[in-house]
UniProtKB/TrEMBL annotation:
Protein name: Uncharacterized protein
Pfam families to which the protein is assigned, alphabetical: PrmA
Single GO molecular function: protein methyltransferase activity
Classification via Gene3D superfamilies: Vaccinia Virus protein VP39
Domain of life according to the entry: Eukaryota
Signal sequence coordinates: 1-18
Residues annotated as transmembrane: none
InterPro entries reported in the protein's UniProt record: HemK-like, N5-glutamine_MTase, SAM-dependent_MTases_sf
GO CC annotation, single: mitochondrion
SUPFAM superfamilies: S-adenosyl-L-methionine-dependent methyltransferases
Keyword Zinc tagged: no
NCBIfam families xref list: hemK_fam
Length: 299
């Protein structure tokens, strides 16, 4: 049987990748998963992370059946993933780890972080995990209820509370709220209860229409288009972030903005940040494959 399944996977993925994935599927087998079903789902293009469910985590978090989750490593974390929320990518992990190394907050003056389009919560949760306890209070915003539920589940899994507990031990915190940051009244409607921010991060939708139509089935058929499509040019969300930053009362002095961008968008997004008149300097970080991946703006 394994020979037949390997042949099916090889036709879809190539021999080397098929052998690896079949081995991982075998390791994930339990009473609710059959190898035949997993291979059939993978051949149809479903991402492997969604297929390799984690029943023990589902029981731990008291999740209903339709919330069955897989996992995806992200730095030292192992985050829950489930459709239709965007699966964290290695290029995002790379710049978040670099950001964590390049800026070290202290418990004496903890920082406030805003993550726009938080999805699984991967960016703020990794920073909360890496930075010392009591140094960051993070807030994630997303329009998708599926994303917000997943981000909250991941926060619980990672042991990051939504507010300071009764313990005297210092803690980092992570909260979420539902909002559309493309809306012109986003700041007043969604952020009125929050102070100025020291850090804004975002991996917004940035795929332009032409590239969106060319995405593989494993992406376009299973991950939320709202987390992928960035408008006709791919820059719609960066214009919204630029408008938000242009409010002079949104950032604290010395703030940092870190934005993931598409493969050919870094210069345009860097110009948008420069045109806000808020930053002393900007820079572009490369991803592990040499592509311009992240725009960093510093006040």
């Amino acid at each position: 049987m394994h020979t037949r399944l390997l042949a099916l996977l090889s036709d879809a993925l190539g021999p080397a990748q098929a052998a690896n994935e079949l081995r991982w599927m075998n390791r994930a087998l339990d009473s609710r998963l059959s190898l035949n079903d997993m291979v059939a789902r993978r051949v149809r293009g479903e991402p492997l992370q969604y297929i390799l469910g984690t029943p023990s985590l589902q029981i731990l978090l008291s999740l209903p059946a339709h919330y069955t989750s897989g996992t995806q490593p992200f730095g030292p974390l192992n985050l829950l993933v489930r459709p239709p929320v965007l699966i964290p990518r290695p290029e995002t992990e790379h710049w978040v780890l670099r950001l964590a190394d390049s800026f070290l907050p202290t418990a004496t003056v903890p920082v406030s972080l805003l993550d726009l389009g938080t999805g699984s919560g991967c960016i703020p949760l990794l920073l909360c995990h890496l930075w010392p306890p009591g140094t960051v209070n993070a807030h994630g915003v997303d329009i998708s209820p599926h994303a917000l539920r997943l981000a909250q589940d991941n926060a619980e899994l990672c042991g990051i509370p939504s507010r300071l507990g009764l313990t005297k031990n210092p803690q980092n915190t992570f909260t979420t709220s539902s909002a559309n940051f493309l809306a012109k009244d986003f700041k007043d409607a969604a952020l009125s209860a929050y102070p100025r921010f020291d850090i804004i991060t975002s991996n917004p939708p940035y795929i332009p229409w032409k590239e969106f139509l060319e995405l593989p089935p494993s992406v376009i058929d299973f991950e939320d288009p709202r987390a992928l499509f960035g408008g006709p040019s791919g820059l719609e969300f960066y214009h919204a972030i630029s408008r938000l930053i242009s409010h002079k009362d949104i950032l604290n002095p010395g703030a940092i903005v870190a934005l993931e961008v598409g493969h050919d968008q870094a210069s345009a997004v860097q110009a948008l940040m420069h045109d806000t008149g808020c930053f002393l300097r900007t820079e572009i970080w490369l991803d592990p494959w040499g592509k311009q991946r992240t725009v960093i703006a510093r006040m």
